[in-house]
Structures are given as structure tokens and as C-alpha cells.
Amino acid sequence: xxxxxxxxxxxxxxxxxxxxxxxxxxxxxxxxxxxxxxxxxxxxxxxxxxxxxxxxxxxxxxxxxxxxxxxxxxxxxxxxxxxxxxxxxxxxxxxxxxxxxxxxxxxxxxxxxxxxxxxxxxxxxxxxxxxxxxxxxxxxxxxxxxxxxxxxxxxxxxxxxxxxxxxxxxxxxxxxxxxxxxxxxxxxxxxxxxxxxxxxxxxxxxxxxxxxxxxxxxxxxxxxxxx
Length: 227
Ligand code: CTP
Ligand code: CA
Hints:
In the C-terminal section; belongs to the PPC synthetase family. In the N-terminal section; belongs to the HFCD (homo-oligomeric flavin containing Cys decarboxylase) superfamily. By secondary structure, the chain is of the alpha/beta class. The chain is built from 5 helices and 14 strands. It has helices at 39-50, 78-88, 133-138, 157-167, 209-226; strands at residues 14-19, 24-27, 30-32, 54-59, 71-74, 94-97, 104-106, 127-129, 146-153, 172-177, 189-190, 193-195, 201-203, 207-208. The strands form 4 sheets. An 8-stranded mixed β-sheet has the order 5-4-1-6-9-10-12-13, with helices on both faces. Strands 2-3 form a two-stranded antiparallel sheet. A hairpin with a 5-residue loop joins strand 12 (193-195) and strand 13 (201-203). Helix 1 crosses helix 5. The longest helix has 18 residues, at 209-226. The two termini are 30 Å apart. The site of cytidine-5'-triphosphate has 14 residues, from helix 3 and strand 9. Cytidine-5'-triphosphate is lined by residues 78, 97, 99, 101, 103, 130, 132-134, 149-152, 164.
């Protein structure tokens, strides 16, 4: 089924795709992360590559094998990801941010393994905001470049999605409703609604992430055609 889906033409386009859940270190052996498997981002990288794009996949640790022919840049933290993306963004035509980026990082990182003490039954962890990568990139964006975000929402999908699209100056946002049990973070299937700055939306069926990725790449190639 996945291969039966037509994929748009991205010949000659250079794309950055991010994937996986970032890790925010507490100490040498511990980190905070999220449930992202990286499957959606890897599927997008593969679909873009099949469509003829030159793809760089910037990836947080996952259990996945990168698609053949794609340049892989491994990262761990949101700060690493921000550096990797902002360094490369000026040289590409587009950025697809499928990574599940941590919103907060520990205020400090311990050099040694944190010890528990007999006096304290509680441990208070202070976090600070991470940089918003799409927001940083919005300030670097040239007219020929497109940026695409993903948003997982548990409520008010379209309203929250449209706000993010505007705030981050995106050309498209793939929004999915993670309150549904049949789709989402760790499974093989997904369902997304593509939102656009002019307010129009396009809903995909529930389908394997590989199919959703091809549909997304079709939309991306249309966006380039409209530039
Ligand atoms: N994103 C980013 N940098 C961050 C956080 C998120 O670039 N520090 C990107 C994600 O990769 C995604 C998009 O922004 O493509 C939307 O992420 P989401 O978590 O839905 O939105 P937030 O702006 O973090 O808002 P909130 O989590 O509060 O809903
Ligand atoms: Ca977030």
C-alpha cells in the first residue's frame, strides 16, 4: 500500500528532517525524554528521499535504521538539535520538524551521578525552557524556504494547530489528535490534519506512518510548486 501512494517530485531540493525524542541530561547516567519512537520522522525522511530530495536526517536516539541514501546527523539534547538545525538551515530548501522536542531541560547538569541522601525523601528538579527551534528558524527564513511542523494535541486540535502555524511562521503543520488510542506516538499508524496559513485544512485517513509520510511529501512538493 505504501508504495502505491504517489509521491510528489522533490528533485533537486535539499531538505532537513528531524526525528525522535530529544534527551535532556540530569547527570551522566540519567535523562528526561518522551515517548516518541522516531517512526514518523524516519518515514518522512524516506519519502522525501524517494521523491528525489537530498535529505539530511537529524535524529535523537531511536531504535530505527536510517533510510539508505540519507545523511544522518545524530544528536541528543534540544540544544544539540537547535545547533545542528540552525547551522544547516541556510543551506537547504526546507525543514520538516518531526522531532518530539523537550520543552524543558534541567537547569543544571550534574557532572557526577546524583546521590540520594538519608535526610531527603523528596528531590526537587528545576527545569528551564529549551530554545524553540522552529521559532529560531523563522527568523532565518528566506522566501524560497519552507518550514513544516508537527503538533500532537489532546484537545482543540485545529485552534491550537492554527496558533502554532502562525506563531512559528510555518508553511504547513501536521496536527494529530493524541487523545485517540488507535494512533499516535509509538504505533505504526497515524492520522493527521494538515493545516495551512490561508486557513485551509486537509485530513488524511488513518494509515501507516509510511503512507502519511508520502501524503505529507506530496503536500510539501505542492508548497514548493507554489513558491
Ligand atoms: N518545536 C521546536 N522547538 C521546541 C519545541 C517544539 O522546534 N523547543 C517544534 C516541534 O518539533 C514541532 C512543533 O514545534 O514541529 C510543535 O511542537 P509542539 O510541542 O506541538 O508545540 P510547542 O510550541 O512546544 O507548544 P506546546 O508543547 O506547549 O503545545
Ligand atoms: Ca512542546
